Amino acid sequence: MANIQYKLRGPAQAYLLGNNELEIDIKDSISFLQYQEYLVERYYISSYTTQGIVFAQVKQLERLRKYGWLTLMDSTHKTNKHDWQLFTLYIRDCYGCWNVGAHFFVSNEKCDTIATALKIIRKLEHQWIPHYFLIDQSSAEANSIAQAFPGLKRGEQECDIIYCTVHVM
Questions:
Q1: Is the CATH number of domain 21-168 3.30.310?
Q2: Most CB atoms within 10 A, among 40, 80, 103, 149?
């Protein structure tokens, strides 16, 4: 089946190839996302020579605010030739369906890189108050959540972390 599909449509991952130059690829991606009515914010962390792109649509942010008390954060590797990781925040709506709340692409999975993206999403939707995060067994992800949502230290709701049982086993 895959061979027939390849013959008829070409390689399925051709759109992931992008430009060889990272900067051009990022600018093209941001233009595409903005054309699709995504809010996009690019950021840099100079001390780590790392960067990222946060993007979400207004409707996604509204769902994040409304149902984001339980937020699942998942990362996908090998999504582009520059070896960046795509993180997606999922929320569970009133019908029990998992929907996207926001995305971010990061050049690495360091704690500060992820925390900065979460802070930007929080700035885009300042009424998002997660009570629980469901994550893989990743100390970088757990520490980034603690940085972005300091809880009672700042007079806010505490945010607990639930680890995926598959990853814990």
A1: no
A2: 149
**Beta-ladder partners of 74:** 88
Retrieve residue 23's tokens: 């900067």
Task: Give backbone dihedrals phi and psi of 15, rounded to 5 degrees, phi first.
Answer: -70, -15
Whole-Å CA distances, 168 to 69, 74, 119, 149, 162: 22, 15, 27, 23, 10
> CA–CA distance from 116 to each of 3, 32, 44, 46, 153 (Å)?
42, 23, 9, 12, 18
Q: What are the pLDDT tens digits along the chain (169 aa)?
A: 444 444 555 555 555 556 778 899 999 999 999 999 999 999 999 887 899 999 999 999 999 999 999 999 999 887 778 889 999 999 999 999 999 999 999 999 999 999 999 999 999 999 999 999 999 888 999 999 999 998 766 667 788 999 986 644 4
Please tell me the distance from the alpha carbon of residue 49 to that of residue 112, in angstroms, as a whole number. Answer: 11
Q: For the chain, how big is the Rg over CA atoms in Å?
A: 17
* Cβ 29 vs Cβ 36: under 8 Å: no
